[in-house]
Structures are given as C-alpha cells and as structure tokens.
Specification:
single chain; 489 residues; alpha/beta; Alkaline Phosphatase, subunit A; 2 domains; 9-stranded mixed sheet; two-stranded antiparallel ribbon; 17 helices; 39% helix
Length: 489
C-alpha cells in the first residue's frame, strides 16, 4: 500500500514537472543561423593561432567557446565535394541537391526554405552577407533555379519573395548577357516598394522602418562584395553593420520573433586564393558579426538560439607545412589581401591598361596591363620585403630567391603574362607565390584553391541548443531549427 502511495506521489510530481517545463518550440522566438562560407575547423583554429601570435583578433573566437559543438557532413546529391549552391540549399531547405542547383531538388523541383517556413508561421525573416545579395548562400533561402549563375533571375526572385530583410555588398548583375546593370536591379527593388539603403550611414531608425528593406554596401553599383576585412578602410560598411541593421529592423517589426541568416561569404573567397591572412581576418570579421548577435542573445537568452556552421571547407587548409613547428608571427607584416597587394604591385610596376582590339565595349582588360621593362629585381625585392617581410623577418634561401627571380625575368624581362586565375580573382604570379611562400614559412599550407569534402564544425548556444547536437549532416540543421521555433514546414 505504502509503495502505491509513493508511486502515485512520484507520478503526480513528474506530471507537474513536465507540465511546468518550458517547451522549446514555444520559447525559441529568435533564430540566428550563422554560416561561414568555406570555414572548416582548421580555418577556425588557424585564426586563433594567428590572432595569438599577431594580436589582430581575439585569442579565442567567440563561437568556438559555445557550449555545444559537433561536426556535420556536407556532400551534395551529385558529388562528395559540394559547391556553395548545393550546400546552401541543404542548409536552407533540408534537402540534398546537385552541385550548381539552387533552391531546387535533384529533379529540379522547387523547394521551400526555413526562411519561408518562418514567414508562413508569422515570424520575420532576413538574410545578410558580405558578398553579393544574390550569391549562392543567401539565394538558397529565397530562390529556385537550376543554376546559381542565373544572377538576374535570383535577384528578381529576391524582390518577388516575402523576405522582409536582405543585405549584401550589391547585386551581381549579368550586363554582358542581359544589358542590365546593378542600377537596373536596384530600381526593380524600389519599384516593388522595397526600401534600398546604401552604406551604414543610411542604416538609421531601422526599428521604425516599415515595409521590406534591402541594405547594400557603400559602392553597390560598382562592387558586389564588401571589401575584404584586411583591406577595410575606416568608415566603410562591414558585415557587423548589416547584422545590427537586421536585428534592429526585425526586432522592431516582428514581436512574435524572427529568423536571420548571416553569411561570412568572403572566408571562402580568401580560401580560393590560398591567402591565410585574408582568410583569418575574414573569420575575425565574421566573429564580429556574431558579437552583435551575442549582444542580442544576452538580452533574450531564454528565447534565442544561435548556430554557427559552414557550407563546406575551402582550400584544404593545413596547420603545418612539413615541419613539427609553426611560426604564425611571420604573417604579421601582411596588411593587404592578395587582391590588394596585386593592385599595389601593379600600380607600382605596371603601365596603365591599354584597350584590347576587338574588346566590344572598349574597356581595358586586366590582361592588357604591361609590366614596366625598366623595373629592377631589387625594386621588386624591396616591395616584397616591405609588404610581406621577405628577406627581413622571413628568411629566403638562395634557391627560393632564384625561383622568384625566374618569375621576375618572365614578367619584366620577357614581358610574358603572369596572371594567376582563381575562382574570384586574377592576381599577379609573383605576389601569389610570395604569399604562398610566407604562409608555408609560418606553418600554414593549402592542398589547393577549391572546396574539399571535409566535415565542417557546428557550434550552438541558447534555447534548445543541445537538441542541435543530434545533427550529423547539413540537411539536419534547418529541420532541427524549425522544430525548436515551431515553424510550419
């Protein structure tokens, strides 16, 4: 008899506790989905090592200290090595698709994303990125197309979508194919009743703004990406400015709650260039945007979940270059990206571009740049010493110098083209080789300038974050987040 009474009392207490326990689906109002494009675990760890040696960022990145951490797989439906379109689609919709497909499944059927699930459930929804607002990752949350390269169609689908907020450096246009430039796409948005803002100086009173908003960079008509963080000049718009604008706008307009995806898109671009300093500074820039999210989280911890992950790893970054030591302080001298250093190198040692015969619009091409024949090897050495520390803080052997001298001869003596073409840039060979040389001296090396099939990290904090540790593949994440927030799929 006594055992039955005890059992009944235990059952009553248990039922009361279950009834009193908060349900994740009802208490998660604010979902932050942070995606570091191309950011593998070595990018994260490599950034922290770089920061500790140089002081250019925090010794520990904010998100690497989140209480919940795991890894996810990233393969697409068509390949073990995904591209950003297929990976973005998986992260946005929970469905695998083929490389190059965006927002459609492997049979080309349109898919709905977690941003659209949030809208259908009465929440606000937004996306922000430091690259083109109609690039693959943001596009996966609002667009449906067989090709990620259909930039104008993706822009038109953004404008036609119910998405409340979008931000990016600018619109990627297809003027050579359609005749339409970025101004045309911005005008389309304005005609659709969307407020288009340019630069952080215009991101004011965001909480009181009504109607849909698109925030763009300072030079959106000529540049689709924000400047690399390492090249950033005081006063220029950064990813954190987009993030703060999005939070203010969505919190001010959607009391029920909101979904926000923020992409550190240029981590990937730096990885394609095999440029570690630029990659690490982009990761620091991404962490700065996460700082803004964490500031919001601290005010709404019981109702907020933050997840940080990547769509894939880029470059095959290795912590180690053949010896059992690293010397990350050797990277401290580099103050510009590979793109920025190439521009400085060409400005000093190249003649102005000349019009190429047959080039239809008469504009100069990069290939028309001509190296100055009177440039001395000593002048080039001085440049590399000044900008990268070679022959100064970074030792250069006689054989290594001979290799650089051979490249100099090809470029400045024989006048041959020395361009190095990666996915997002065309740089000068001697600058590219010099960055690679210094990187290896510091202990960082790269497998190649493209994506890999490596699993990527997932970090989580906030309401229901523990539930996200069951995610094993990128398709699991949007489903788990939707369950936590109670979105209707």
């Amino acid at each position: 008899m006594k055992r039955n009474v005890i059992f009944r009392l235990f059952a009553v207490v248990l039922i009361a506790l279950v009834a009193a326990a908060p349900v994740d689906a009802k208490r998660v109002k604010y979902v932050f989905y942070m995606i570091g494009d191309g950011m593998g675990i070595n990018h994260v760890r490599g950034t922290e090592i770089f920061n500790r040696a140089t002081g250019y960022g925090p010794a520990e990145l904010n998100f690497s200290q989140f209480p919940y951490r795991t890894f996810i797989t990233t393969h697409s439906a068509s390949s073990l090595v995904t591209d950003s379109a297929a990976a973005g689609t998986a992260l946005a919709t929970g469905t695998k698709t083929n490389n190059n497909y965006l927002g459609v499944d492997a049979e080309k059927r349109p898919l709905s994303s977690i941003a659209m699930w949030a809208k259908a459930s009465g929440y606000g929804a937004g996306v922000a990125t430091c690259v083109g607002v109609n690039h693959a990752t943001p596009g996966a949350f609002y667009a449906n197309t067989e090709s990620r390269s259909n930039y104008e169609l993706i822009a038109e689908q953004l404008i036609a979508s119910p998405l409340d907020f979008a931000a990016g450096g600018g619109f990627i246009n297809q003027k050579s194919k359609t005749g339409h430039d970025s101004a045309y796409l911005e005008n389309l948005a304005t005609k659709a009743g969307i407020t288009v803002l340019h630069g952080k100086g215009e991101f004011t009173d965001m909480a009181s703004r009504k109607g849909r908003v698109i925030c763009l960079g300072d030079n959106s008509l000529s540049e689709t990406d924000l400047p690399y963080a390492v090249d950033h000049q005081p006063g220029q718009t950064k990813l954190v400015d987009f993030t703060n604008a999005a939070i203010d706008y969505l919190y001010g307009n959607y009391p029920k709650g909101f979904f926000l995806m923020v992409e550190g898109g240029s981590i990937d671009h730096a990885g394609h260039n095999d440029d570690p300093v630029t990659d690490f500074q982009e990761t620091n820039d991404f962490a700065e945007a996460i700082d803004a999210v964490l500031a919001f989280y601290r005010r709404h911890a019981a109702e907020t979940v933050i997840i940080v992950t990547a769509d894939h790893e880029t470059g095959g970054l290795m912590l180690g270059a053949g010896s059992y030591e690293m010397k990350p302080s050797l990277l401290a001298k580099q103050k510009y990206s590979e793109n920025g250093l190439t521009a400085r190198f060409r400005a000093r040692f190249y003649k102005p571009a000349e019009t190429v015969q047959g080039h239809t619009d008469g504009a100069p091409m990069a290939q028309a740049l001509q190296s100055r024949q009177n440039t001395s090897w000593e002048a080039v050495k001085d440049f590399l010493k000044e900008e990268l520390g070679m022959w100064d803080t970074v030792p250069v052997s006689e054989s290594a110098e001979a290799a650089f001298k051979a490249t100099y001869d090809k470029t400045f003596v024989r006048g041959e083209n020395d361009d190095v073409v990666s996915l997002y840039a065309t740089n000068t060979r001697i600058v590219s080789d010099a960055i690679d040389f210094v990187s290896k001296a510091a202990g960082y090396s790269w497998a190649h300038g493209s994506h890999t099939g490596s699993p990527v990290p997932l970090f989580a904090i906030g309401a229901g974050a523990l539930d996200l540790m069951s995610c094993r593949d990128n398709t699991d994440i949007p489903k788990a987040l939707a369950k936590l927030a109670g979105y209707k799929r």
